[in-house]
Amino acid sequence: MGMSVMRVEVVSNEEHIYSGEASFVVVPTVSGELGIYPRHEPIMSLVRPGALRLTVPDSNEEVLVAVSGGILEVQPDKVMVLADIAVRSTELDTARAEEAKRAAQERLAHAKQSNDDEAQAKAHAALAVAIAELKTLDYLRIHKD
């Protein structure tokens, strides 16, 4: 592995969503989008719903993953994302994501009215996934050649 490449692991529920090399990674964190190049100083951050983008070495290919939240850990030669839920962009569907977002918003409203904390937490999680998917699809739409 040269100076210009780092190892990237995106893991969700023990499932590897992406495992490989990248020359650049953009992670949606709670403090904004974070661009990470190899030899980045070590940091940890919370991930917020959005599009995680990986640039594959020796190609201009970009891999997109919708992440609903989680934890980012950066080492100089490795980036680890422990995502709550992660979906590769190739598996995304706009209509389904829009529908999921609407359904989650309705469930959230009902849960708030009935003061059901558990239902609220579940609805929030579902909403985060839908938002992440829609942000990723937006990014794809804007950057399609």
From TrEMBL:
The keyword Nuclease does not apply. One of its GO terms (cellular component) is plasma membrane. PANTHER family: ATP SYNTHASE DELTA/EPSILON CHAIN, ATP SYNTHASE EPSILON CHAIN, CHLOROPLASTIC. Gene3D superfamilies: F0F1 ATP synthase delta/epsilon subunit, N-terminal. This is ATP synthase epsilon chain. Produces ATP from ADP in the presence of a proton gradient across the membrane. F-type ATPases have 2 components, CF(1) - the catalytic core - and CF(0) - the membrane proton channel. CF(1) has five subunits: alpha(3), beta(3), gamma(1), delta(1), epsilon(1). CF(0) has three main subunits: a, b and c. Residues 91-136 form the ATP synthase epsilon subunit C-terminal domain. GO terms for molecular function: ATP binding; hydrolase activity; proton-transporting ATP synthase activity, rotational mechanism. Pfam families: ATP-synt_DE (PF00401), ATP-synt_DE_N (PF02823). InterPro entries: ATP_F1_dsu/esu_C_sf (IPR036794), ATP_synth_F1_dsu/esu (IPR001469), ATP_synth_F1_dsu/esu_N (IPR020546), ATP_synth_F1_esu_C (IPR020547), ATPsynth_dsu/esu_N (IPR036771). Signal peptide: none annotated. It is found in: Cell membrane. It comes from the Bacteria. It is a peripheral membrane protein. The keyword Nucleotide-binding does not apply. NCBIfam families: ATP_synt_epsi, PRK00571.1-4. Belongs to the ATPase epsilon chain family.
